[in-house]
Amino acid sequence: MLFSLTKETKAYFYDWSRVNDPAGRFENYVAVELKAILELWTDAGIGNFQMHFIRNRDGKETDFLILRDSEPWLMIEAKLSRASIDYHHRKSRDILGGIPFIQVVKQEGVAEKREQGLYQMSASRFFV
Fold it and tell me: How buried is residue 78: exposed, middle or buried, by Cβ count under 10 Å (0-12/13-18/19+)?
């Protein structure tokens, strides 16, 4: 078995300003924006979209795993600023069939393709 699934819950506030930690606040913001987009796409009949997260056995997480029609479709990590893409994201991506991975950053002016299927982009560009 390559990986196992467990049912865990992550909670986010609709009012992300309640989160004191800047990184946590930004992740919360991304979660609320994604939830709105995924509900819109689902309601429009584009597919049935769900939002989850990934945590490996070492406790390393990818903030968001988007499923489309119950299949892994997109991985997203929220970061405050431009940074390298951590190895565990690449490994999870490979296990899930090479789905796209986007590191969404708060920092402005970022839009780059790192490798095939690996991207980094400012939230202001991603959530247009």
Answer: buried
Would you mind telling me the total number of residues written for the chain in this entry? 128
Q: What percent of the chain has pLDDT over 70?
A: 94
- Distance, in Å, from the CA atom of 73 to the CA atom of 48, rounded to the nearest integer, reads 11
Residue 10: pLDDT band by 50, 70, 90 thresholds?
confident
Q: What pLDDT, on the 0 to 100 scale, is given for residue 4?
A: 53
- Mention every residue, 6+ apart, whose C-beta is less than 8 A from residue 53: 10, 61, 62, 63, 64, 65
Strand partners, 79: 105
Measured CA to CA, the distance from residue 91 to residue 104 in angstroms comes to: 18
CA distance 122 to 34: 14
For 122, what's the count of Cα atoms within 13 Å in the CB-facing half-sphere?
8
Mean predicted confidence (pLDDT) in 74-100: 95
Query: Which tokens is 120 given?
Result: 């980094």
By the 8 A CB rule, do 77 and 91 touch? no
